[in-house]
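Re: that backbone. Tokens:
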């Protein structure tokens, strides 16, 4: 993928794939915004705030929820995007067969042992989720639930520290706004 046109084509292919997979999904915010906004926001954070140009990381960011939240298989991702992108996505994918609290604890435990690429995707995911929580939280979430989500996110990001100081500072700035949660 040294060819810039090939890089752009790969990223657009990932966006189109994710859009098709998430086409009927909505976010939990009060407006029920289209789900695809979320993975695109991750790639935007990485590229435009983090200066990340690695096409594998950007594609993985766009595809990060396809295995977890759609019928996409690891083999399908590997077939379309290669083993490396698929492996990054698998590193950030929760096992939905486990209870929610177990999945959350596993994210905390796995964070420091993930590849740098997966840590970047996870960091962007937490940044985007906190931004959404602060600007348009799920209508049915209490202040306590929002604060618990911030606390848990902070625990996950603790294991990502040292990956990208600039993005970590963005996360810290969002975390500092916890009083806005009511």
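Recovered sequence:
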């Amino acid at each position: 993928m040294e060819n810039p046109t090939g890089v752009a084509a790969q990223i657009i292919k990932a966006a189109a794939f994710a859009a098709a997979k998430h086409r009927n999904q909505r976010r939990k915010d009060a407006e029920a915004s289209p789900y695809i906004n979320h993975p695109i926001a991750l790639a935007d954070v990485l590229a435009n705030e983090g200066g990340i140009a690695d096409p594998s990381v950007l594609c993985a960011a766009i595809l990060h929820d396809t295995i977890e939240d759609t019928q996409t298989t690891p083999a399908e991702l590997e077939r379309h995007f290669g083993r490396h992108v698929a492996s990054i996505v698998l590193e950030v994918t929760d096992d939905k067969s486990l209870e929610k609290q177990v999945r959350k604890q596993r994210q905390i435990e796995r964070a420091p042992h993930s590849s740098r690429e997966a840590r970047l995707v996870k960091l962007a995911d937490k940044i985007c989720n906190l931004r959404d929580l602060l600007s348009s939280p799920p209508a049915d979430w209490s202040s306590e639930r929002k604060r618990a989500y911030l606390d848990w996110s902070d625990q996950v990001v603790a294991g990502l520290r040292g990956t990208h100081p600039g993005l970590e500072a963005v996360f810290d700035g969002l975390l500092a706004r916890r009083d806005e949660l009511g």
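The chain has a mean pLDDT of 95. The CA atoms of residues 108 and 156 lie 4 Å apart.
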